[in-house]
């Protein structure tokens, strides 16, 4: 792996490109439309590389900050379900990698102070190593893709890459990888992003748009036969047996007059008082409006199911405390269907990259996911709650043969392969809204891009560790309350 190299494109700044230390919501750099010639778009990319050289992305300086990370955490907890916020903090307190996963708002503020080429794409907003995985497409293929879009919004493309590479350094440190292995994981993610974007720049547009990544190819590339067999069995079970039947056995109990979601407090629970009845009535009423946001064919399919139960479910790290419910539907044939209704809030990117043009946060999430993923859940939709407060919500399948990365057993060789696939996947997601010709010309054909990103990843991982220490101090001082999940 190369450690240093020179970018072949020369170095200047286009009017409006974000400068180091300046907020990223300044006007984006001008760029030719994608209908312009390849030569003109390549020239624009090389021009961007002159005024925002790749080496400028390498540094993170804490002195650039204009905020207290704990203040931002507290701010991001406002409006959440109050008794769940201490669970969120407890999960984040576990280690610096867990803190990083829950602090997308902190990093968004930090990224707004870093150099940017001024080119914007539909960004994920929370692009870290654990927000990728495998799932079944409607055609029952098992693909590898980004799987969390709560924060998606237009923003500088570099922000997703920087969050991704920093996450691999923190993951490597969490798993006690060597310094070289840890750096290489981040470096390979960035390199795969650059190489794949270069490939898309040369491909027919439709070929690039249809590109996807097969999960079994990734598993085979890791060389971990034990893990491969284990996951292949899960894939087989999930595709040969309806995944919702498997979920039913884990999450529900058969009772009269209707099946009921099993309480597993504090992470899955019913609200069995008057407030709970209002909540269930609200979701049931809102659910009718959800059908208006899906394809007509899916709306017809949903007419074959009736809503039988709703329960609160705590998910993720950064999402803990936001409204999230499991909805159990049953068909006349007795087939279960689990959907997840989740609160959508303003993206953490918006204060720094500008307001999303889509005003409904649930619709923002759905539109962003449909744009960035190679194949999206056909049940994706959005709605506005009917009850008090009128929460903005989006809907998706709860689980459809989802395969999550097993970070607790991650080893260097497998993580390097995984990092490469995340980089390629992110490039595919970005090229759907961005210009791969321009971005590829900007990154060039040397190792300078991945060298800069690996340097940034190490520096920012140090910052995340300091922020985690600040959180520990805040808990000890009584500024933050944590709660056990036992």
TrEMBL record:
Residues 1-46 are annotated as: Disordered. It holds the Pfam family DUF2252. Residues 17-36 have a biased composition (Low complexity). It comes from the Bacteria. Residues 1-10 have a biased composition (Basic residues). PANTHER family: DUF2252 DOMAIN-CONTAINING PROTEIN. This is DUF2252 domain-containing protein.
């Amino acid at each position: 792996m190369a450690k240093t190299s020179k970018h072949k494109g020369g170095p200047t700044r286009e009017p409006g490109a974000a400068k180091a230390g300046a907020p990223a919501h300044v006007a984006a750099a001008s760029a030719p439309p994608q209908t312009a010639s390849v030569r003109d778009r390549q020239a624009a990319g090389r021009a961007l590389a002159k005024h925002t050289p790749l080496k400028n992305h390498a540094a993170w300086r804490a002195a650039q900050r204009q905020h207290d990370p704990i203040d931002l955490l507290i701010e991001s907890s406002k409006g959440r379900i109050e008794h769940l916020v201490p669970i969120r903090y407890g999960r984040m307190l576990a280690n610096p990698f867990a803190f990083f996963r829950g602090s997308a708002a902190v990093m968004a503020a930090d990224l707004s102070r870093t150099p940017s080429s001024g080119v914007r794409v539909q960004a994920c907003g929370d692009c870290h190593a654990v927000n990728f995985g495998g799932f079944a497409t409607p055609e029952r293929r098992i693909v590898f893709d980004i799987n969390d879009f709560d924060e998606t919004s237009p923003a500088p493309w570099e922000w997703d890459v920087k969050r991704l590479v920093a996450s691999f350094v923190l993951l490597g440190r969490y798993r006690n990888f060597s310094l070289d292995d840890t750096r290489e994981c981040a470096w390979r993610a960035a390199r795969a992003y650059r190489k794949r974007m270069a490939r898309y720049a040369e491909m027919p547009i439709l070929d690039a748009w249809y590109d996807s990544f097969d999960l079994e190819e990734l598993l085979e590339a890791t060389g971990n036969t034990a893990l491969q067999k284990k996951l292949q069995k899960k894939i087989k079970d999930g595709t040969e047996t309806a995944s919702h039947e498997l979920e039913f056995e884990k999450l529900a109990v058969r009772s009269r007059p209707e099946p009921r979601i099993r309480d597993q407090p504090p992470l899955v629970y019913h609200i069995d008082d008057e407030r709970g009845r209002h909540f269930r009535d609200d979701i049931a009423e809102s659910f009718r409006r959800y059908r208006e946001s899906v394809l007509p064919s899916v709306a017809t399919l949903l007419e074959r199911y009736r809503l039988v139960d709703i329960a609160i479910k705590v998910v993720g790290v950064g999402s803990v405390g936001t409204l999230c419910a499991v909805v159990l539907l049953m068909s006349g044939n007795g087939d279960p269907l689990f959907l997840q209704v989740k609160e959508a809030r303003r993206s953490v990117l918006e204060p720094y990259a500008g307001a999303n043009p889509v005003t409904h946060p649930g619709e923002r999430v759905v539109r962003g996911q449909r744009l960035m993923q190679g194949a999206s859940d056909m049940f994706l939709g959005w709605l506005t709650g009917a009850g008090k407060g009128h929460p903005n919500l989006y809907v998706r399948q709860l689980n459809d043969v989802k395969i999550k990365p097993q970070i607790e057993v991650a080893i260097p060789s497998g993580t390097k392969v995984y990092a490469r696939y995340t980089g390629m996947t992110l490039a595919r997601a970005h090229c759907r809204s961005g210009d791969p010709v321009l971005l590829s010309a900007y990154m060039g054909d040397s190792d300078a891009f991945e060298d800069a990103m690996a340097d940034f990843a190490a520096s920012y991982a140090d910052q995340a560790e300091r922020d985690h220490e600040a959180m520990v101090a805040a808990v000890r001082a009584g500024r933050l309350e944590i709660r056990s999940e036992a």
